[in-house]
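Continuing the batch. This is chain 6 of the set; chains 1 through 5 are on the previous pages. Same settings as before, nothing changed between runs. Recording input and output for traceability.
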Amino acid sequence: MKKRILSLVLALALVMSAAVVPAFAVTTEDLTKQRETEHFEFYCTDQDVKALDDLAKSFEGCYDRVTTDLGKAPSGKTKVNVYPDIQSFHSAMGDPNGADWFVGQAKNGEVYMTSPLNPGPAHTYDELIQIAVHEFTHIVINLFGNVPIYLHEGVACYEAGQYSGKYQELSAFITNQMQNNKVPSLSTLESAKSGADGLYEYSYAFVDFIARRYGFDKVIELLEGKPEALSNIRSSAFNQQWWQTLAELYVKDDSLTESMETENFVLVFSSQDSEVASELAFELEKCREKTTTDLKISSNMKQIIRIYPDNESYYEGLGFDSGDTFHVIFNSAIYCISPASLGSQSNRKDQIGKIVVQSEQILLYAVSRSLPYYLSYGISYHESGATISGLKDWVKGQADAGTLPTLMELEKNTAKNYDVYGYIYVEFVAQIFGYENLYDNLASLLEGESQEKVFSMTAQQLNEKWMAFLKDYDKMALPSNLDTADTWAKPEIISAVRKGFVPSDLQNNYRNAITREQFCQMAIMYLEYATGKDIQTILSERNLTIRQDAFVDTDNSYILAAYALGITKGTSGPSEEGPGVFDPDASISREMAATMLTRLSKALGNDTDNAADAGYTDIGRASSWAVNSINYCYASGVMKGANLTFSPKDTYTIQQSIATLDRMG
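Output for chain 6:
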């Protein structure tokens, strides 16, 4: 009996011992080199190799951005030590009782971190992948020397985007802190210790504040320890500014109860504006993708859009009694009245367009603080697709009055109507120096290059060309009403008009839907251009004749020729019993356009059968008769979708029709 009791006691002791003694800790010496990339070497145990693909992607993916943003880079490859569990990591860091949130550290030029496969109770796999960027940023910051903890952590969080998708969480925290008078001053932040309550939240918010108000260059100067970076940084006035910005950006407004966070934007709005917020978010992201791609720029700053349901709440949110504006920028955030409250659909669309223009101006300002006003407006207008109506007559009036501004006046921000002239200036750059060079030229100007260097001309020569351009603006031998087209379509519209297959009545309102009749007319005019023969000769050579009674609702010669060539069949084709129906004024869908473009290509002698699958994710929405044509148009480069989607049922526009015909050769 005593032996049984002794055995039970020993067994219980072993169990208790197992509960309090950690498993064998893997040391740094136990890690072996498992992967090497361009800028990193990865050391881990065999069990963590399967996490290296994601880790390598995260580290290499952030390398160029972080080193470019901070202007420094490690001299060699950075060693990354990955421990299989949090206990091993804590032991290796000399902190066996470390907090659960402590999963990464940068020191001595190396990164030490817990494996994403076993991140501990405070984090997830994806968070560890993001923390990798945070720790590498610390490696780069260490190159500056002795940097305060709050700047270290703030810049690391900012570069890693660790508060992306957490606006509500950050807003709730800061709102509570404000209400309880716990928001720290700068001196409090400067003396904060690692792990202090709110350190990460406030450090991130402070770096974001400096970047928004003064530009990221000032963050770099603070890292460099330059006291003149912000001369009043320790004054009470600066603290008031810091606290006010926190309140404006993050403190909850009783009238704005909802939020939506996308890749580049945070929209805060009332529940009644959920639909318009989604519509606005879509337009903002669409434009942002275009601008960053066209100009090869980026920004870590998420733009905050506060959408107020009505005038009263809008002006209350601004702290004004009243005014005559619908939108305004504060601290790189946009405050606006809901587009849904502005009456007609056209007013709503116009307001959304103006907000998108403002968001692009904020982006450009973040990239280049010295950018002249006219360039900021001009690029923003063109990238957003916004237009200014009646420009030719307006410019002629300015020319007649002798009030046209010189380029020097625009550069110095002393010219009136700089927003309008900015729009015209982008057209000037495109038409004088080539649409194919437009974005490279704009990107160079955005980077601070002088016009003289970009265009290899003296200031006087450039100004002479500019003034001549303005004086001839109302009678330029270019496509009519080109300002009604999107920027992407303009080169192909110009090309098509010069080739002669765009009728004059289609040189306007390029974004409008094209009709079935108009598309047939352009298709036949293109066929004449491509073959160098008139339509009668083309039909005769193919032994084809026009059937005058093909359709009951049209006798248009272009439609009848297109029918004879098999380019169109009508909505219900003619038969032996009688004529069919064409519906000439109806718009066409993208799948209809693809089908007619493919038939036109076949009429030109091309093999259009059995095209390879284009891989569109929404091809199942297309009509069966259109699938091969959609694939053919993709393979031939004539017509493509966006982001692996084709949108077969969407309406086709005049500018899309002109562009796709021009791409045929």
